[in-house]
Design goal:
The protein is mainly α. It has two domains: 1-77, no CATH class; 84-179, no CATH class. Helices cover 40% and strands 4% of the residues. The protein has helices at 2-13, 40-47, 103-110, 120-137, 145-162, 172-178; strands at 58-59, 70-71, 117-118, 170-171. Helix 3 (103-110) crosses helix 4 and helix 4 (120-137) runs antiparallel to helix 5. It is globular and about 40 Å long. The model is unreliable at 1-22 and 62-66 (pLDDT under 50). This is Putative sterigmatocystin biosynthesis peroxidase stcC. Keywords: Heme, Iron, Metal-binding, Oxidoreductase, Peroxidase, Signal. Its cofactor is heme b. It holds the Pfam family Peroxidase_2.
Length: 179
């Protein structure tokens, strides 16, 4: 668990050190040769050039083990690393592709976001509904303690990154762009 947390934080906190800029961090869709992870936040960093746009050979500069080995973003697709059943925008591993954006799943989650901002309560209801939906259609649905923690972290991340400092409500349009 410590490794997974360190890995996730390493990617986010050291993103600017890997910047490969085109213009002022213009968005660019990944090419067929680029790699992406199951995490929309990490993918957004790569699509904007804060991480290498190719998604290849990431250095773990802040690794606490002292090993600066590299990895590719799609290495994170391994079930149970940061990818988990009940993702807000990806299918479960049981159905095959657990890393590509799934419009149907995202629309079911986004249907809860009917106001200009997403409150903590609304985010929690959307998260709960997604987990219930996933469990109802996936006969092998599992959510380990680590998976549950990442599930809560991904919701907390979009609320904290896009949220109002006073009440925590996130701008709905910004969250939709992220996914």
């Amino acid at each position: 668990m410590l490794f997974k947390s360190t890995l996730a934080l390493s990617l986010v906190l050291s993103a600017d050190a890997f910047a490969v800029r085109r213009g002022a961090n213009d968005w660019s869709a990944p090419t067929a040769d680029d790699r992406r992870s199951p995490c929309p936040m990490v993918n957004s960093l790569a699509n904007h050039g804060y991480l290498p746009r190719t998604g290849l050979n990431k250095a773990l500069l802040t690794s606490t083990t002292g090993n600066n080995a590299t990895f590719n973003l799609d290495d994170l697709n391994t079930h149970g690393v940061i990818e988990h059943d009940g993702s807000l925008s990806r299918n479960d591993i049981y159905f095959g592709d657990n890393h590509s954006f799934n419009q149907t799943i995202w629309e079911s989650v986004a249907s809860h976001f009917t106001e200009p901002t997403i409150s903590i309560s609304t985010a929690a209801k959307a998260r709960k509904a997604r987990l219930q939906d996933a469990a109802s259609v996936n006969p092998e649905f599992t959510l380990t303690a680590d998976g549950a923690q990442f599930s809560f972290i991904e919701t907390a991340l979009y609320l904290s990154v896009f949220g109002n400092l006073d009440n925590g409500d996130a701008n709905t349009e910004w969250v939709k762009v992220l996914f």
